[in-house]
From TrEMBL:
Protein name in UniProt: Putative transposase
InterPro entries with a match to the protein in the record: Cas12f1-like_TNB, RNA-guided_DNA_endo/Transpos, Transposase
Keywords: DNA recombination, DNA-binding, Transposition
Species assigned in the record: Nonomuraea muscovyensis
Residues of the Cas12f1-like TNB domain: 318-384
One Pfam family it belongs to: OrfB_IS605
Amino acid sequence: MRRSFKFLLRPTRKQVAALTACLADHQQLYNAALEHRRTAYRKAGVTVRYGEQSAELKHIRADDPGGQGRWSFSSQQATLRRLDKAFAAFFARVKAGRAPGFPRFKGKGWFDTVEWPKDGDGCRWDSQPGHPAATYVRLQGIGQVRVHQHRRVLGTVKTISVKREGRRWYVILSCDDVPAQPLPATGVAVGIDMGVAWLVTTSDGEHVANQRHLAACADRLAAAQRDLSRKQRGSNRRRKAVARVAALHAKVRRQRLDGAHKAALALVGVYDVIVHEALQVANMTSRAAPKPDGEGGWLPNGAAAKSGLNKSILDAGWGVFLTILSHKAGSAGRELIAVNPADTSRTCSRCGHCVAENRVTQAGFRCWACGHTAHADANAAVNILRAGLALRDAARAA
């Protein structure tokens, strides 16, 4: 199986300058290649392909030895493939009848990753294996950069990427042939209900707290954004203010990822079968639809309340948690089943009676037919587990 490993880099000041220049030159190459395609089609009706642009790299590097010529040829090819994939996705969306979204030019803050497609071609992971206390990655034009390797790398390193996140730099290794690490069978199945009050509620009645990292950081983030709004565009003070806001958002993201990893690991370690809701988070967090009043005005549509709910859902990080749970379950040999969440929160897990009135409050459930009472999320988790096991049995019978 393929797996990625992400480590923090510890570059020197000189190496930070070189990494920044590398990103800037690859950004320039991407934008120039995009302009080449746009101009060729607009003026001559000619479609430029990746192969043609890759063939021109030799001349570009020769004409600019102190700029584009400094970097790995393979990494520049990867940047051109990135543009080619953007065009392929654009045409796929056009063909499918979705909003096209033509490829855009990349600004300074929108190009933060450079990829080397092959370990040993312009880059080398663990380039000083004999070093007693540190790990290094060698990057062409940058040198030997120290890596904070906090865990062992498994499998065979195929591609190496460097990513800038705020003021931090990371190296990302994509590895093939990573061995699975199956856990001992427990013979236990569980259904999980995702929520805002609790991140996860299991069918066993256990809760995993929603830490609300963004809400906890809201005051500091608001102060940093107010400070940013007072700075003049293009000034050094504004760049520093932007960096402070980015650092706060990055901290929230790291905290959310850490919590999701811990919650997923706890579930995978105990249960053989995990059933969850097939949530469409993007649809659930869309804006409230406007309501015209038929006279040129608009009726109240609950946009403010919907905005607050959307923020709470995104702060909980359902999508991140389910993605991490899927990866950990696959590596541990656990079975993950997604079910349609419709009516799971209003159906009685004891008698099956389904009406909206069964959900008394956010946390309270009381069946109008049989009088069964339970925590609403735990009741929904039992229904989710039952639906998942029914799907599994139906698939095996087929």
